[in-house]
Amino acid sequence: MAETKIEFHDFHWLDISAPTQELLEGVAKNYELHPTSVQDCLQPEHLPKHEVIHDISFIVLRAYDKECHDAADTVQELTRKIAVFHSDRFLITVHRADHEFIHQLHAKWTKRAKADPTVTPEHILADLMNEVVKTYDEPVHECVSSLETFEMEIFGAGTQRKFRIQNGYYLKRKVSVFKRMLRATLEPLNRVMAKAESDLHPAFQNAKDHIDSLYFYADEISESMSSLLNLHVSLQQQKTSVASQRTNEVMRVLTIFSVFFLPVNFIASIYGMNFEHMPELKWDYGYWIALGFMATVAATILIWFHRKGWLSSRDYK
């Protein structure tokens, strides 16, 4: 648990990391926070939102977690929640995990705390929202690089690695989470911006423009990944179809050969029985007559197949 407090002229910023239940209850009592809002701070599944209870605004933001594992593809695995309480008298931020950008904001606003009497809680809130949005920069651009790699793997261009469809699935899931979080962050951003002073509108607008840009990239990645997955499935089906066609061709050739030899084997099996009273056994030219009969049958089948077009794979129907 860590607690940082920065005093300004008319308000203070209290930042709490990894809070306990007892600490939050004490903070809620001191600042007259609504119990349900405080309870929400301890629940990790909440999406970005904005609520106003009396004169206190309660905001939930979600920042990308750099420590998430490679296979992470859910909101809870990819992002970490930051709860914000703010009024004219204070700004309170609560989060379970440490974020580097929050420490940077501590350093920045500690220097300005006493030097600039015009600072309001909305100034810090605008900075905080911009930094939360910026946390999605790196993962979105990493998804662009992964998309290019998957494209090369599918077509075998410049890489020996084979594309694994589950990797494409994880990428699409990640991008879907990013799109969902970026879109959800717009609601609290717009509501805070509507009540902020006009000189702060450019800062909030910058966050909105950043969200629009990242959302555009994420949407393009999602559509491209869907196309690549469909293309991969089509290529696999084509390979299966070619293999099946080759197997059918082999079976056709074997079938044709078996048709040629079936009547020949039938004739040979009859004359191989050697019964005592078979009339053809003592013919002087019986052997050659049998061979000629076999050849005639084979030639007849050959002519018939040729007329049907069954001997050519190009004409085979």
Provide a short characterization of the protein structure.
The protein has 317 residues and is α+β, with helices and mostly antiparallel strands. It is built from 9 helices and 6 strands, in the order E-E-H-H-E-E-H-E-E-H-H-H-H-H-H.
Question: How do the helices and strands line up, and which of them pair or pack?
Answer:
Elements (H helix, E strand, L loop, with lengths): L1 E6 L4 E6 L3 H11 L3 H7 L7 E5 L2 E9 L10 H4 E8 L3 E6 L4 H13 L8 H14 L2 H19 L9 H31 L5 H71 L14 H23 L9
Parallel strand pairs: 2-6
Antiparallel strand pairs: 1-2, 3-4, 4-5, 5-6
Helix pairs in contact: 4-5, 5-8, 6-7, 6-8, 7-8, 8-9
Describe this structure as you would to a colleague:
This protein is α+β, with helices and mostly antiparallel strands and 317 residues long. It folds into 2 domains: 237 residues, CorA soluble domain-like (Beta Polymerase, domain 2, 2-Layer Sandwich); 60 residues, Methane Monooxygenase Hydroxylase, Chain G, domain 1. The protein has 9 helices and 6 strands. Strand 5 and strand 6 form a beta hairpin. Helix 6 runs antiparallel to helix 7 and helix 6 runs parallel beside helix 8. The mean pLDDT is 84.
